[in-house]
Amino acid sequence: SDALAAAQDAQNDADKATAAPTAHLLAPTWCALEVQPDADPAPAPLSLAIGAAADLPAAAKAAALRIDWNDADDANGVVARCLPLGIGRVVLVPPTPAGVEGEALIGATRAFLLRAFALLRAFATSPFAERALQWRLHTRGAWAVTPDESPDPLHAALSGLLAVAARENAGWRVATLDAAADADWPDAPAPAGQGGEVQALAHRENAWLRRELLPFEQGRPAEHAYRQNGVYVVVGGAGGIGEQWSRALIAGYGARLVWIGRRPADAGIAAKIAAMPAGPAPVYLQADVADRDAL
Hints:
Elements: H1 2-18, E1 26-33, E2 47-50, E3 65-67, H2 75-82, E4 89-92, H3 102-124, E5 133-140, H4 153-168, E6 172-179, E7 198-204, E8 207-215, E9 231-235, H5 240-253, E10 256-261, H6 267-274, E11 283-286
Parallel strand pairs: 2-3, 2-4, 4-5, 5-6, 6-7, 9-10, 10-11
Antiparallel strand pairs: 1-8, 7-8
């Protein structure tokens, strides 16, 4: 009987090993992060702080070099001032445009990102490209951590820009530390990322949070997300993902689709339209969605 039981256990293990993989849904979830105090902290590197004096966190006010964003237009000049000081950390505190919305907010965000991009490029094309350089970005409301929050587009976009810079410069470490839009900068210490790593931490209700992918159980929707015979405008519908999504909507819902893309209609797009399932053929319109008049 023992031999039979052992054989059965071995068979069960073999069945599990050869079983088809099970699909799991994962959802990004903000989880509390326990910050352990460093028993032997390394000396903080000399810092450059860029931002309005009133906006800087307490730690950044002790920076070796502080400049306002209005003085950062000469990006190469900023780098030249940092080199002889041996700056090892750059602290960025973006402004929060008050009372600006709509097209004005889009314009302000674009202009600020171009200024930030010029600064990053100046550092990346200088001797700092070969150095271990820390970047600390202090944002307010960059992410909707709680259901009642709306992300600040300028702060969220700058966080993404810095994340790309970190991945393109292996010696740089980037940490985005986000406070609630109406909160003061937290005094609680936050860990910095390792070389080549991007840290994205949010501080809410006296705790640091980090996004993690956790299993997600999706309940059955109360009703279908799409209407039968509905009309849908699809930006990028002629692309790879848009094409497959369009197939599903036409086959499952008889949807009438309008594809919008930047390139002129050509034989490739015509072939994709002809290959759609039986039903209304998509209509292709050429327009750049960033161009209001063309759209």
